[in-house]
Amino acid sequence: MSPINLTRMSRWSGALYALIFLLAPLGFIVGKMQSYAPGNAAATTTQLLENELVFRWGMVAEVGVVLVELVIAALMYQLFRPVSRSLALGAAITRAVEAAIQAVNLIPSMIALAAANGVGVYADVSQTTRETVVLGAMDAYQDMILIWGIPFALHVAFLGLLVIRSGLVPRLIGWLLMAASVAYLLDSVFPMVAPAWSGFSETVVLIAAIPAELAFAVWLIARGVRTDRWRALADTADAPAESRPPVPASVR
User: Fold this and answer.
1) Positive or negative: CA dihedral 89, 90, 91, 95
2) How far is residue 187's CA from residue 199's CA, in Å, rounded to a whole number?
3) What is the pTM of this model?
4) Are 16 and 69 in contact (CB under 8 A)?
5) Dihedral angle at the C-alpha atoms of 79, 84, 89, 95, nearest 10 degrees?
6) pLDDT confidence of residue 44
7) Phi, psi of 182 (to 5 degrees)
8) Which residue in 187, 90, 87, 196 sits closest to 147, CA to CA?
9) Across residues 82-96, what is the average pLDDT?
10) Helix axis angle, 52-80 relative to 106-117, nearest 10°?
11) Given CB 3.0 to 4.6 Å as the disulfide criterion, which of 31, 129, 151, 172 pairs with 94?
12) Where on the phi/psi map is residue 118: left (φ > 0), alpha (ψ -120 to 50), or beta?
């Protein structure tokens, strides 16, 4: 791969990574927060109908997230494949699994919309039953977010290891990504096993995880991966580990 193509790929990867920070809040937060009253079926149904357009556009944003996630998985594999094929493949697969679960998670939103509007199989169902279905679907949506957070946490861990091992990006960013993976895992697990600590895990994500991913995205956009290091790794990808070029001190 030529240096120009590698730099372009790095910047596209960073730009798409940054795009996630725009689309994800629109889909997972803005599109849902005005349409969900936990524990209150009637209020949830009323709020969804009052904010139906925002809800639907939030779903469009979620579709955008899924598509971007799959492209990022492929680009990250190409960028880090010379470092370790197994780690790069693991990173790509876990990100693709996360995207697949996000796609499946559009189903509860579609069920909630149908039940709230009383269309399809819900046309002849009582108002109370439809409201119960809406709340159940919205609850399921929130639970699925916890589930796709697990493969995403593993993906970030793979990415952190790749950065630390590669020398393509400052090693500090790799360690920040490793910390971020722990934060994301806690954010998924705590609501399941220790609901009282959910607020703590969300704070950890805001403090540790999001800045780490942003730093990674900004670095890719502004600097990209080191082309000389990437080519050296690519040239020796099939060589024994001990014969590979050492990580330069400038990126440690």
Assistant:
1) positive
2) 9
3) 0.86
4) no
5) -60
6) 96
7) -65, -40
8) 187
9) 95
10) 170
11) 151
12) left
